[in-house]
Amino acid sequence: MTKFESIISIAQPLDKVYGFLSDLNNHQQLMPENIYNWSSTTDEAKFTIQNMAKLALKVNARIENAEILITPSEEAPFALEMKWLVAADGAGTTAKLIVSAELNMMMKMLASGPLQKLVDHQTTALAKALA
């Protein structure tokens, strides 16, 4: 599995950050502009990545104020797992997003840049959404 990670500190209490991330309805605010056809519930989200693929994701596990594990709910172009880890950090919260993807050599060359960019975009967007 290839891992893509991004971490950010947010000046908000842990329960607020966890509460935001645990509801997939909020994740639309974290997506870049090339995402469209978004539909979601608290536990599932479906969307299309422009010129790429349709994805359907679901919350697979939640650990209160610590972790949210998101996995595909339908067939995806490759095996994928998104994990949000949150922890109290002095006056605020540290949020870390880890995307693990099963990529062959060709897919790694094509997708590594966009996946890292997506992970970085989501953590930055999280900080803005909770500012």
Can you describe this structure in just a few lines?
Helix content is 25%, strand content 44%. The chain has 131 residues and is α+β, with helices and mostly antiparallel strands.
Keywords:
alpha+beta; Alpha-D-Glucose-1,6-Bisphosphate, Chain A, domain 4; globular; 131 residues; 2 helices; seven-stranded antiparallel sheet
What would you say this structure looks like, in words?
With 131 residues, this protein is α+β, with helices and mostly antiparallel strands. It has a single domain (2-129), classed as Alpha-D-Glucose-1,6-Bisphosphate, Chain A, domain 4, CATH 3.30.530. It contains two helices and seven strands, in the order βαββββββα. It has a seven-stranded antiparallel sheet with strand order 1-7-6-5-4-3-2, covered by helices on one side. The longest helix has 25 residues, at 105-129. It is globular, with a radius of gyration of 14 Å. The mean pLDDT is 94. This is SRPBCC family protein.
Which spans of ≥5 residues are poorly predicted at pLDDT below 50?
none
Count of beta strands: 7
CATH 2nd-level architecture: 2-Layer Sandwich
What is the arithmetic mean of pLDDT?
94
Compute the number of structural domains.
Answer: 1
What fraction of the residues are assigned to beta strands by DSSP?
Answer: 35-45%
Distance between the termini: 33 Å
Order of neighbouring strands in the sheet with most strands: 1-7-6-5-4-3-2
CATH class: Alpha Beta
Query: Could you state the order of secondary-structure elements as H and E?
Result: EHEEEEEEH
Helix share, percent:
25-40%
Radius of gyration over C-alpha positions, nearest whole angstrom: 14 Å
Outline the biggest β-sheet. 7 strands, antiparallel
CATH topology: the name is Alpha-D-Glucose-1,6-Bisphosphate, Chain A, domain 4
| Quaternary form | single chain
Instruction: Count up the helices.
Output: 2
- CATH superfamily heading: START domain
Task: Determine the structural class based on helices, strands and strand pairing.
Answer: alpha+beta
* Global morphology: globular
